[in-house]
Design a protein that fits this description.
By secondary structure, the protein is mainly beta. The protein contains no helices and eleven strands. The strands form two sheets. Strands 2, 4, 5, 6, 9, 10 and 11 form a seven-stranded mixed β-sheet that branches. A four-stranded antiparallel β-sheet has the order 1-3-8-7, with no helix packed on it.
């Protein structure tokens, strides 16, 4: 069983930066692949980025590639999403998720692939 808690969201101006954190419970965290998703008002939840259990492999959605970076620190049981050059279109609730299956990171773009989810943290980017 894995419990996830996101933090670090807030209100920023366009062009600014935020770093989201996702704290995980349980000693199995180091062997669990992780992902970030986001959901804007009136829209479906969409994939943002994923990272392997080792942290050596990452994959990001085209919409955030070059601006967002996913990373993890297994010693701290935490996964991060560094968001730079934020745009108003990035405004959404951001969710952290865990995937117990071993699959290529580039295929981890579907909500149904993930087994555990956090409660979400709001990110608002003003013009």
């Amino acid at each position: 069983q894995v419990q996830l808690v996101e933090s670090g969201g807030g209100l920023v101006q366009a062009g600014g930066s935020l770093r989201l954190s996702c704290a995980a419970s349980g000693r199995t965290f180091s062997r669990v692949a992780m992902g970030w998703f986001r959901q804007a008002p009136g829209k479906e939840r969409e994939f943002v980025a994923a990272i392997s259990w080792s942290g050596l492999t990452t994959y990001s959605a085209d919409s955030v590639k070059g601006r967002f970076t996913i990373s993890r620190d297994n010693a701290k049981n935490t996964v991060y999403l560094q968001m730079n050059s934020l745009e108003p279109g990035d405004t959404a609730v951001y969710y952290c998720a865990a995937d117990l299956a071993r699959r290529p990171i580039a295929t981890m773009v579907r909500i149904g692939d993930y087994d555990y989810w956090g409660q979400g943290t709001q990110v608002t980017v003003s013009s």
